[in-house]
Write a structure and sequence with these properties.
- The protein is α/β, with parallel strands linked by helices and about 600 residues long.
- It folds into 2 domains: about 100-245, Rossmann fold, CATH 3.40.50; about 275-510 and about 530-575, Dihydrodipicolinate Reductase, domain 2, CATH 3.30.360.
- About 30% of the residues lie in helices and about 20% in strands.
- A hairpin with a 5-residue loop joins strand 1 and strand 2 (about 60).
- The protein is globular and about 75 Å long.
- Bound molecules: NADPH dihydro-nicotinamide-adenine-dinucleotide phosphate and 6-O-phosphono-beta-D-glucopyranose (BG6).
- NADPH dihydro-nicotinamide-adenine-dinucleotide phosphate binds near residues 109, 111 and 140.
Length: about 600
């Protein structure tokens, strides 16, 4: 299935200058190609009074009863009656013979569902990117009515794109498509009941079903077994989005894949790594392969080192229980940073088809030099009090065992044993409770041989060589550091940036990664999802290291909450003649 470069959010509202996807019907904003948007009839009884404008101009349905609604119960009843009449319209609307898509969020009562999945689905709906006939189902053990689910979802919805236009209406229309079924994750009966409910909405059409497993990993297989045996589509496709963690090491990951494949074929499994859905990560290939100035430089000949930096300025608050079983290497490095590295370093794929791209990524991962303990630094944040504010230590978290050695920070030097990258250090750094929140890629170029301006550049030549920075978040930007003559009669040089600052260049807000990935899963586009052999290769790289760290009980270096992290991370970089690009405030 060949495809050309494309953007999943090339919706009708996209700017005309953006490139477009021309892959199968799925590409582009689905609605705009295969499901022409149709104005949704709005029942007269819909009122916009339970919609508020938030301080940033976004609009959200309020969870607080507005003045003339005395209680939350009344608000729920009102939403229920509104959405009931919308349901009638939905049913009326689907008499035409067209496919339906049902998206079931398994674990709908959870944090990720509330925070990311439902808001992303709404954003897609808001942008007319969802198919005409879609239904969203929440499935979890918690007892909830449809109306209660809608109230829960409405609390996190915002109209982030076009801040005022029809937002309230769109929300109510969207909520009218959301339903709930309560059941156990290992209950065939529960999923059979879900199946019956889905059929009511599918009204005999070709039914495509997407299950999003937003549940803890120990219940993935039960849920997949029940969904596939009791609730998969009889006449359309059935796909399952699986959230990380995909195991803890090579063995458990292989077991997970093996178990999933008892019920699903590889093409039905969409392993999500939400970093691949981030705008600047997706742009990496565009930047490199469609600009003549970059691709020829993309090798050991011109690149001195590459850095992948992830930092958060908050700790594991609330997720300590999960985190302690994984640690930062499994949580961030083995997946998010390694995926970016693979995209960054791969050879030119034959085409932009998912298989061609993933083939190239696997080759990079399989060419990596085994990771040595010596090339890794681990750290853990400790608490302190500053200016009257107390910052907790990792081990202060009640869900974290006392004396835990789980790293909340890690830095590593990796190498790719191939002709393009031989000897080039690929440095990774990931940490929680550091001084800032950021994710970026830094490409440091070699020094100019025989530089005529050497004497004008100051003693630190590393700091005066070109550096390309791809700031994935926050405040997306791509900038290239160059040496430049300061205007004037003297010959004085400084470091300046050629700067593509997204907020200044593009007026359209950047979609959340989950929007892109959900749209791709609905469209059957696998390019941004992890194939099982990629996953195996990623675990093969990190598993021996993780085992060694755990067997040797390597003590993490303690670092202050809010600091730059362990000093040893600098020593590691110096060993390879590298300076972390983010550690020099003046030259960031
Ligand atoms: P939650 O812990 O909030 O769990 C989701 C739902 O699963 C809960 O609402 C609960 O629903 C059910 N559940 C929780 N624990 C159990 C259990 N032990 N046995 C059976 N059911 C249980 O998870 P998140 O929403 O935070 O995450 C969902 C998935 O996404 C996980 O795999 C997580 O690792 C992954 N993930 C989460 C991120 C986040 O930011 N939250 C980020 C990246 C990945 P009920 O009781 O109603 O059945
Ligand atoms: C998740 C990790 O995969 O990514 C979290 O489990 C981390 O620990 C999160 O906080 C970061 O994602 P983002 O998109 O906020 O950078």
């Amino acid at each position: 299935m060949a495809s050309t470069i494309s953007s999943s959010l090339n919706c009708p509202t996209s700017s005309s200058s953006s490139y477009s996807r021309t892959t199968p019907a799925s590409r582009s904003c689905l609605h705009s190609l295969s499901f022409p948007p149709k104005p949704f009839p709005l029942p007269k009884k819909i009122s916009l009074r339970n919609v508020v404008n938030t301080h940033d101009g976004a609009v959200a349905a309020t969870a607080t009863p507005p003045e003339n609604v005395s209680s939350l119960e009344e608000l729920k009843d009102e939403l229920l009656s509104i959405t009931a009449s919308l349901e009638e319209d939905v049913r009326f609307d689907i008499k035409e013979k067209e496919d339906t898509v049902s998206i079931t969020v398994v674990g709908a009562s959870g944090d990720l569902a509330k925070k990311k999945i439902f808001p992303a689905l709404f954003a897609l709906y808001y942008e007319d990117c969802l198919p005409k006939h879609f239904t969203v189902f929440g499935y979890a053990r918690s007892k909830m009515t449809d109306a209660e689910l809608r109230v829960m979802i409405s609390r996190t919805l915002t109209c982030r794109i076009d801040k005022s236009e029809n937002c309230g209406e769109k929300m109510e229309q969207f909520l009218g498509r959301c339903f709930y079924h309560s059941g156990q994750y290992d209950s065939d009966e529960g999923f059979a009941e879900l199946d019956t409910k889905l059929k009511v909405h599918e009204v005999g059409r070709v039914s495509n079903r997407l299950f999003y497993l937003s549940i803890p990993p120990n219940i993935f297989i039960d849920a997949v077994r029940c969904a596939s045996t009791s609730a998969s589509s009889a006449n359309g496709w059935t796909r399952v989005i699986v959230e990380k963690p995909f195991g803890r090491d090579s063995e458990s990951s292989a077991a997970l894949t093996r178990d999933l494949k008892q019920y699903l074929v590889e093409d039905q499994i969409f392993r999500i790594d939400h970093y691949l859905g981030k705008e600047l990560v997706e742009n990496l290939s565009v930047l490199r392969f469609s600009n003549l100035i970059f691709e020829p430089l993309w090798s050991r000949q011109y690149i001195r080192n590459v850095q992948f930096i992830f930092s958060e300025n908050f700790g594991t608050e609330g997720r300590g229980g999960y985190f302690d079983n994984y640690g930062i290497i499994r949580d961030i490095m083995q997946n998010h940073l390694l995926q970016i590295l693979a995209l960054f370093a791969m050879e030119t794929p034959v085409s932009l088809d998912a298989e061609d791209i993933r083939n190239e990524k696997v080759k990079v991962l399989r060419s990596m030099k085994p990771l040595q303990l010596d090339d890794v630094v681990v750290g853990q944040y400790k608490g302190h009090t500053e200016g009257g504010v107390t910052y907790p230590a990792y081990t202060d978290d009640k869900t974290v065992p006392k004396g835990s050695l789980t790293p909340t920070f890690a830095a590593a030097a990796l190498f790719i044993n191939n002709a393009r990258w031989d000897g080039v250090p690929f440095l990774m750094k990931a940490g929680k409770a550091l001084g800032s929140k950021r994710a970026e890629i830094r490409v440091q170029f070699r020094h100019v041989p025989g530089n005529l301006f050497k004497t004008k550049l100051g003693p630190d030549h590393d700091r005066s060589t070109n550096e390309l920075v791809i700031r994935v978040q926050p405040d997306e930007a791509i900038y290239l550091k160059i040496n430049n003559k300061v205007p004037g009669l003297s010959m004085r040089l400084d470091r300046s940036n050629l700067n593509l600052h997204y907020a200044a260049r593009y007026s359209k807000e950047i979609p959340d990664a989950y929007e892109r990935l959900l749209l791709d899963a609905i469209g059957g586009e696998r390019r941004l999802f992890i194939r099982s052999d990629e996953l195996d290769a990623a675990w093969a790289l990190f598993t021996p290291l993780l085992k060694e760290l755990e067997e040797k009980k390597v003590e993490p270096e303690l670092y202050l909450y809010g600091s730059e992290g362990p000093v040893k991370a600098h020593h590691l970089a110096y060993r390879y003649k590298v300076q972390w690009g983010d550690s020099d405030n003046e030259h960031r």
